[in-house]
Amino acid sequence: MGPHYLSRFFTPKTVAIVGASEREDSVGYRLLLNMQEAGFQGGLYPVNNKRDTLLGLKAYPDLTSVPEDLDLVVVATPAPSVPGIVRQCGEKGVTSIIIITAGFGELGDEGKRLQQEVLDIAHRYSIRIIGPNCLGVIRPNGHLNATFGDGVVKDGSLALLSQSGAVCTAILDWAKSQDIGFSTVVSMGGAADIDFGEVLDYLATDSKTTGILMYVEGIRDARRFLSGLKAAARLKPVILIKSGRHEAGCKAAMSHTGAMVGGDHVFDAAIARAGVVRAYSITELFSAARILANNYVVKDNRLAIITNAGGPGVMATDRAEDVGVKMAGLSEASITALNAVLPPHWSHANPVDILGDATSERYQQALDVCLADDNIDGILVILTPQAMTNPTQVAHSIIDGAKASKKPVLATWTGGARVQEGRNLFANSNVAHFSTPEVAVDAFSFLAHYMQNQILLKQIPMPGDDLATPDVAGARLIIERVLAEGRQVLTAQEAKAVLAAFHIKVTQTIKVSNAKDAMIAAETLGFPVVLKVNMAEFSHKSDIGGVRLNIGSVLDISRHFVEMETAIKQKHPEITEVCMTVEPMFKAVSGREIMIGVVRDPVFGPAISVGLGGTMVEILKDSAVALPPLNAYMVEQMLAKTKAAKYLRAFRQLPPADTQALVDVLLNVSTMVSELPEILELDINPLIVDENGAVAVDARIKAEVSHQLNRYAHMAIHPYPHELAQHHQLTNGTNITIRPIRPEDAVMEKDFVHRLSETSKHFRFRQALHELTPEMVVRFTQIDYDREMAFVAVTEDANMPNELGVGRYIKNPDGHSVEFALVVADDCHCLGIGTKLMNALMQTAKNKGITFFEAEVLAVNSGMLSLLKKLGFSVETVADTLDVVRVVKDLRV
Question: Measuring CA to CA, which residue among 321, 281, 266 is closest to residue 445?
Fold first, then answer.
């Protein structure tokens, strides 16, 4: 409705620097000097109680003596003084503070106490804080450099967010050598208040920013982090580096999955789901930024290489293999066309070696053929300086040829002075240039990963129409009964019962505690059978010889029981009773052993993995990881990343396995861990998959009591809330559905706004708007269902348009209130649609703990004001304007 609540950090008109100093070796001196050297054009006020002037500016003893209202205060004084300064800011009406000072949460209990005191004061006065222990903020276009870094930062279109001030300065220094500029630089520091998610939300709609680079060390609020990433990545490329690639975070002694899936695997899955690309070095970071900033689009990752030297082509091919880029196969038509324009001894394959005497014409002809080949998604052109080749002329030819195609064309001009002019030409073209062939291949791989992740970003899992409704209540009762008995690990019978409640086929299991019971169970099930140890003390049964297969008689099962019981008691004298299970021996001649697992990551919540199973699972280490909720597309993408994908196909004498059955199992597991926050870990190993289906032969579940109040609070990604759909009949008899909006509603939403009258558009957007821009369509239809919600009223009545109205809200920074918007089609007024949309929005917000619903409404919008008054909203005037009123409703009443 108005400027973003973080805008004062980036576009302030008045700035005070508390702790400004004349000592050249001090942070306060550098802060003040950087502001002056950046050419800050607003009011700049040094605060130092020992100086009257600093660097030619009048200094003030404290904030209260500064004569102007302040948009931003930068604090660089010792940590014990900061609470008092924050209180002064509150009393002066300052709402934005950057705390440069260290000595807070990173310095033990006293630092944490001091930090909490600062946050308590800030909360009392509605103050937002960047930091503490940060480098600061830079906005080159606004002549703002509120950091103590060294040197001027060039204006550009990339934003940089970094948790580490040192890494931030290193990246800025590297970028300066590469002549790369920035729209915004934010050093997050301790992120005690404002974190990545909120800054990303600001940058998503910032017109100065076309791409975002991030350095991440740790995440405090996973859902807000991913929400901000998604909001930004829907509109512009986001590339990040993450340090601390640990595994300890989600390891657990109990499960195979916990031993294999570390925190870094889960982080990769999370950012892929958010549409983000990950880099592993500063060089890769800028390589990815350079190619993504050109807005290239690829269907796949098939790369062709054109080179005038064999060695660089081979090096590039090797790198392609390393990073998973496919070397494109040239079509027969392309080979014929290349034969017509290239010397007889060209390579006749990809890489396309056009030989050392290649002219600019030969380069352009080869490029034209490759651009026309549907088997090729991108082209890397390599030039090494040869006596017969003019690097500058070739650069002109490549740039001209690339203009005629949407396919990405990358270039590597290797060498020194002879190729420099060509490199300069590429710098001002749509052909991205890279220093070496390997770096260029890396950049193309980032582009392919980005496009793949953008598809994942748009996936909104819906309830499977072909999947039976699970017995969630029954499964929860089983788990609650286990927890009430003081146990966390479910028995095999209990675990399989939970799986069965979610329609995952399992083998029958009978629990036994003596040889007689084992014999009875075996006769009941029918031979052959399997005897397994079933005790929480032994996570991996095969490690202690706790599995006996293919037992064919009563006599044999009695003997095996006694042998296993005796061996366990000898090794563990403290055990008085050995529990086992008897199961039918599952026969599947063509069965493949698959493992499906779940771990609870401490940051991102449940993560699902799939890969080759069996007793050698830790050695094979075949797994792909994804965050729930999942849909069929995401499951298929998971499977494609595993070695198991090939194992499931037909080979030798084995028929292809029923992959759809495996997909269904994974979808049911996704539903299970979404609906049951009690589940901490799950292993299905093995899941036997053959041509007839999938059966869970063994399973273990570890659980804990859940204390969460909000459904899905344990998940980093909020599932599509299909349960919120409502069905109504309007006063004219039309049947409508009010449901949460989906990405596939984009065309419908754009058409709806296009059909609105100019008056309705003005009431809704408060600006002249003919139709939604592509960016607005994305923003309106791809939401996260947690911090924002949008309901559409739709009908299948052929006599009415498909979309009749839309209402939405988004959480305010306080987390307790939301700002809403509502619009109904002009030809659908007075049918009760607005009331039904508002009631759906308010009930949803209330269920999420929101206490206040509010919005700004044009005073002349009498129809909207009349509706809101009937719904119990109060109307308040807005300071300094008669055109707008504010409407507020307390949802607690």
Answer: 321
Assess if residue 468 is contained within a domain.
Answer: no
Query: Residues with Cβ < 8 Å from 281, sequence gap 6 or more?
Result: 241
Q: Are residues 244 and 365 in the same domain?
A: no
Q: What is the value of pTM for the model shown?
A: 0.83
Alpha helical stretches, state H, 433-509: 437-457, 472-484, 492-501
CATH number at residue 104: 3.40.50.720
Classify residue 880 as left (phi > 0), alpha (psi -120 to 50) or beta.
left
What is d(CA 436, CA 172) in angstroms, rounded to the nearest whole number?
Answer: 22
**End residue of a domain, out of 81, 104, 136:** 136
Q: Give the HSE-up count for residue 23: Cα atoms under 13 Å, Cβ half-sphere.
A: 7
Contact 366, 342 (CB under 8 A): yes
Residue 354 structural domain? 297-429
> Which residue type is seen at 664?
D
The CA distance from 94 to 64, in Å, is 11
Structural tokens at position 382: 């390599």
Spatial distance between the Cα atoms of 21 and 17, rounded to a whole number of angstroms: 9
669 and 754: one domain?
Answer: no
User: Does 364 have pLDDT greater than 70?
Assistant: yes
In a domain, 513, yes or no: yes
Residue 381 sits in the same domain as residue 246: no
One domain for residues 210 and 269: yes
Under 8 Å between Cβ of 855 and 810: no
Check whether 255 has a pLDDT greater than 60.
no
The answer to whether the peptide bond before residue 629 is cis (omega within 30 degrees of 0) is: yes
Got the DSSP string for 571-583?
A: H-TT-----EEEE
Distance of alpha carbon 419 from the chain centroid: 40
φ and ψ of 580, to 5 deg = -135, 170
When divided into structural domains, the chain yields a total of 6
Residues 250 and 335 reside in one and the same domain: no
Which CATH number belongs to the domain containing residue 346 in this structure? 3.40.50.261
Q: Which of 74, 102, 136 is the last residue of a domain?
A: 136
Same domain, 307 and 283: no
Do residues 233 and 276 lie in contact, with contact meaning Cβ atoms separated by under 8 Å? yes
What does the alpha-carbon distance between residue 128 and residue 105 come to, in Å, rounded to a whole number? 17
804 with 868, same domain: the answer is yes
How do strand 803-811 and strand 817-824 relate by DSSP bridges? antiparallel
Distance CA 890, CA 853 (A): 7
250 lies in a domain? yes
In a domain, 786, yes or no: yes
CA dihedral 837, 224, 257, 624 (to 10 degrees): 80
d(CA 172, CA 34): 15
Which among 80, 46, 82 has a CA at the least distance from the CA of 66? 46
Q: What is the CATH number of the domain that holds 564?
A: 3.30.1490.20
Residues 6+ apart with CB under 8 A from 374: 331
Q: Would you state the pLDDT for residue 466?
A: 64
Q: Based on the domain organization, do 405 and 277 belong to the same domain? A: no
**pLDDT higher than 70, residue 252:** no
- Between CA 324 and CA 442 the distance in angstroms is 10
- Cα distance between residue 830 and residue 834, in whole Å: 8
pLDDT digits (tens, 9 = 90+) for 629-673: 999 989 999 999 999 999 999 988 889 999 999 999 999 999 999
| Rounded Cα–Cα distance for residues 618 and 837 (Å) | 52
DSSP alpha helices (H): ranges in 756-881? Answer: 758-765, 774-781, 833-847, 862-870
How far apart, in Å, are the Cα atoms of 472 and each of 13, 462, 499, 500, 678?
A: 56, 17, 10, 11, 12
247: tokens are 């595994």
Cα distance from N-terminal residue to C-terminal residue, the chain = 26
Pairing of the two strands 238-242 and 211-216: parallel
Q: Are 139 and 155 in contact (CB under 8 A)?
A: no
CB 825 within 8 A of CB 801: yes
CA pair distance 289, 299, nearest whole angstrom:
19
